[in-house]
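pinning this so it doesn't scroll away 📌
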Amino acid sequence: MTTISIIGTGNMATAIGARAVQHGHAVEIIGRSRSKAEAAADAIGHGATVGTYGERPSGGIVFVAVLYQHAVDVVAQFGDTLAGKILVDITNPFNASGTGVVTTPGSSVAQQIAAIAPKDAEVIKAFNTIFRNVLAEAAPLDALFAGGSAGARARFAAFLQSIGIRPLDAGGPEETYVLEWAAILLMGLARNGAGWNVALSADLR
């Protein structure tokens, strides 16, 4: 069993948490609003707990599940409490129309987080290319991820496998910007006939 912490109380936070607890992991929810964090933990169930905002998360893997505009500030507020953690950036920095991203090559949200996170924290981009309703289903699926060191990605891949998700390692930090655009591809498919239950996958031959 692994303990994961999730900073955020929205739909993606509860979907990730629910999938984790259903596969035997412990989940800690952290939010600026204690009442919202408690509501999210109640929705997840299975003993999900509530942490204190700004204090050291209990999980070795910490999901940053907030709006992209707040992600860097949130990590800065936690500061050294995130030392040694794997930080998972799930954000999508979409423009107003959802047809592009507001980041630039070399400055993905994950790379911005890595620049201000403790030096021994590992920042991985993941789950930004999976719709919440798809993640909430029990069915197996694929997850693209990138960032951090090879060792951190291997640890994260093991976690994904433990919750019924096939890990698709896309590479190091430079590929995190590519994943932000992959989410735009997913949005395009959904809007143009594939529907909102579509998921990205790969045929590895």
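📌 and the second one:
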Amino acid sequence: MTLTVHGVKVPLDPTELSPEIWQALSNGTYEAKEARWVFKSVRPHDRVLELGSGIGILTALIAGIEGVHVWSFEANPSSVRLARRVIEANNLENVTLTQGILAAGPPRDFIFYARKDLWMSSIVEHQGPYDEILTIPSVNIDQFISQHEIDVIVMDIEGAERDLLIEAELPGVERIFLELHDHLYGLAGIRDITQALASKGFGYDPRGSSGPCVLFSRGNEPRLYQSEGPDF
């Protein structure tokens, strides 16, 4: 079965997803805010690092921007399997999708909790009941950023953004678009993220932010963002 979600072909079956995710896909609310606002963050010809591809819908939208290349990481192997199908169905040759975790510092093992609700899978144990525990080795994010000359990071990693953004150096990155998860780390965690990014030269950018989906940008020069996303 193939749905069209935010203009993206999604060849998935309801048996492969939780009822909550299938309903969100069917009624068009799945990652709707992220899908609209990411176009304020990614510009033509950007080199994009996406952390937390999920089932690949946002990945496909980003990849549809002119001249963009996307390196996408997803920890959950079940999500990666579905995302590969979405990427192939949309004939996207400018996406490199990897099953794994990027983290600051030397490679180390992370415990990852896989859940039936794929969008709730994370390295946070107390986020809810889980079906499987996986051990996933990390790759150094700063080395990856430097190697691939990343311009912008897009991330939805279910709370892991707090430690990552505090610890990583983020060399050369101009913009970071992320979903905040204050239900996991509270307002104190948001302060930690904001202060850590400010120390690296990033400021909260209201031109690409809405609610928990926020853009942090470096530099003071005027920026020309993609004017708007798909009509949905």
